[in-house]
Predict the 3D structure of the following.
Amino acid sequence: MSGHTWITRVSALLGAIATASWLWVSYTYLKNQVGLDVIESMLPQEQGQIIAGVVLPLCLVWTILLFIVRGAALSSQTRQLLSKMERLTYPDDEENTRVKDITRQLQEQAESLSSASSDVERRLSGLINAFKEQTKQLTGAAIRASSQTEQIQETLVAQQSSLEDVHTSIHSSLDVAREAVKEQVTALESSGVRSEVMADTIS
């Protein structure tokens, strides 16, 4: 049992004994010296004074006991704090060993995290560089594809123009041929008419 607990129990026991004794003494005194009938016939303020005379000493006793208990509790807590401070200020060998082990583990974890961070950073840098290179290649391919598309469009336009020129030339040639055929037909028809006239003349 700790000192604080022992003092608390002793104070409570003393307070209970003192309270019971004081109440018994007060009751005996009032009964024998004053008389209960007289107390009942007193004015309220007089009865209040009697009650205060009985209760106030008990309040004083219990206040003193509570101060004693509180002081014991503070003393116990102070001793515990001093003991903890002493252990923190002058730790024993076991505590030193445990602190060193924890410190070493933390350092190892920090080194592992640093190494992992460096590895991740290198990988990210590699991925970023690869992405940039692929972006450049895609951009170049897009530019080349755009240039080729423009060349194809220009070629198609030129071919379309050539086809239009050929179509125009063929159309013109056909017109000329049709005119020539018409002229030949007309000439033949004229020759036939003249032949018929000459035949009629001769006959």
